[in-house]
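Retro notes, structure queue

What went well: the backlog is down to a handful. What didn't: a couple of records were mislabeled last round, so from now on we paste the full input next to the output in the thread. Example, using Aconitate hydratase A from Sphingobacterium suaedae:
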Amino acid sequence: MAFDIEMIKKVYSQYEERIAAARQVVNKPLTLAEKILYTHLWDGNATQAYERGNSYVDFAPDRVAMQDATAQMALLQFMQAGRPKVAVPSTVHCDHLIQARDGAEQDLTRAKSESSEVFNFLSSVSNKYGIGFWKPGAGIIHQVVLENYAFPGGMMIGTDSHTVNAGGLGMVAIGVGGADACDVMAGLPWELKFPKLIGVKLTGKLSGWAAPKDVILKVAGILTVKGGTGAIVEYFGEGAESLSCTGKGTICNMGAEIGATTSTFGYDASMERYLRATGRAEVAEAANIIKQHLTADPEVYANPEQYFDQLIEINLSELEPSLNGPFTPDLYTPVSRMREEAEKNGWPLKVEWGLIGSCTNSSYEDLSRAASIAKQAIDKGLVTKAEFGINPGSEQVRYTADRDGLLSTFEDLNATIFTNACGPCIGMWDRAGADKQEKNTIVHSFNRNFAKRADGNPNTYAFVTSPEMVAAIAISGDLGFNPVTDTLTNKNGEQVKLDAPTGDELPAKGFDVEDPGYQAPAADGSAVQVDVSPTSDRLQLLEPFAAWEGTDLKGLKLLIKAKGKCTTDHISMAGPWLKYRGHLDNISNNMLIGAVNYFNDQTDTVKNQLTGEYGAVPATQRAYKAVGIGSIVVGDENYGEGSSREHAAMEPRHLGVRAVLVKSFARIHETNLKKQGMLGLTFANKDDYDKIQEDDTIDILGLTTFTPGKPLTLVLHHADGSQEEILANHTYNAQQIEWFKAGGALNIIRANQAN
Ligand code: F3S
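Corresponding output:
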């Protein structure tokens, strides 16, 4: 579980000089986020000031973390790089593939047998390439990272959007796609648009029922699900210092729900306490030496409006406990208004389930505060009206909470203790009766509450709140229950009131664990075999893509002219297909099945130019591939927006699509296409989109002189024998043109390793 103190000390040893260089170019006091960004430039000391929201910058992250669903393709790609070991400390965490149903023990046993081939692959590939492996049941990636690896002033990337959780320990931690993780593990820089900065000044102090969760629920209500896009949110002020480290983690975690690049807090006493309590006194001591650099310059916090692009102020003393939802995490309702809002909007008041857990809220403090409510319920003779489920964040939290009697308190209320894993938060919940799709309400301490997220039922109204509020509301069984003011009737018919929660920021007797579930990698992995069965339908080793043939591309068939929105979900659908994300050939059967065909307004129905018949997109493309004919995909504006899912670029590449020609690209998808050795082109004249006809055969000319900034020529051969020439722009730089020629970026990395 080594937390790489030498790496951390190296990062800190560079701080002084790099911050001095940054100060010189920026020429004004620096925020914390700027300090972390400028100390992690790929090229070392800053030589220019970057424009927030505009400049694309190469960074050198300190760590990579991957969860079991996204790690599969990231590591299959990494294997292509030909490196003996990962270039930066990296970990894999098995938390997404464990379904909650009967309780921890049975559920874990079932998951291990159902997903054994995925777990075995991840275990063996981690062992071989120097990656720390956290077994199924060890905990949820972001809690485990906070407990073991996050450090103030560090930068990490992770293949999960809630990687941002590590901001609770003063990191800049950002969620990325597998291709980015692969690059960083292979020793390449990682590119990010220099973010804008949102400051959140916290004054006052939380009290009563208000919890750190209420801070981010309030921020989400203010900024909405889009308000943080492209920005880092930096929290500061006396209120920030009064919050526990894991509470800060909760706030940063849900920064993903406002679209923020990430969120962070300056290094303070709560972080030092947490580092020491989790066995990292050495990190705390190293951080203390450069303390002044692990928070913004004092001028920034004195006049924040001058240094942030946007500023929000929240007085913690006035904050009310609240619930956000249903169906969106930014619909903010303070508990005092919930009954009225629910009645007005027809939200079912009867609460069926209360769920505590997820990477957002599964710390020791969370469990202890919720358990204090459960304990009162028992002592005051209350009977729980809703069902109760708990997913502890890590084995260390679970073991300690068990030792301290917190779990037995929940069990006394008939709670089911699920595995230390994501469970219902990622829809891995076999909820009895969910298939009946009845309208019902649940409350949970998770981060996301989009329709169908937890149990697949579109009629489940899910509300996000703090763990202690989940406990109170589940006990009452009433969404409108306000524990601050309302009473409940106990077994004896008496009216009783719940007192405000109490809890321990950190366990008084310290953390304890018998087996944390960690597997250290082999010191020399060269002899380790990676475990992939050739008959597996979930995993498939990748073959390198072929290099460019050195000529212009002629005779490409139009596969589909996509109309309107075409996101990465339309290109590579999620849902049931997630099962195949480690098997490129199988998952390619979802390629573009969500895209609308311009010529018939239907999805997944395109004309096969060889037979004249209409068929599914993947099948049609496979027919072209079988006879060695390349194809081209045409798209509209912002093609490939959505997630950074690399499958959306790998699938067309695998099936033989040679180029994607669109009015405009979402940048991440465009870069992913380039990495896979595809041609991503844009119409020089957007109206030329209208010239593309259903039976077109297309030539791409100019590839032998492919040069940055020089458009390519496309010849459209129409079915009536006529032809037209159009120009296509591209944004390939010299390096990216090499990627195209080599058949993909990984082919170049591998060739460089061999030399
Ligand atoms: Fe897992 Fe849910 Fe977090 S899926 S990583 S617990 S957001």
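Agreed that this is the format going forward. Reviewer comment attached to the example: Residues 325-496 form a domain with the Aconitase; domain 3 fold (CATH 3.30.499.10).
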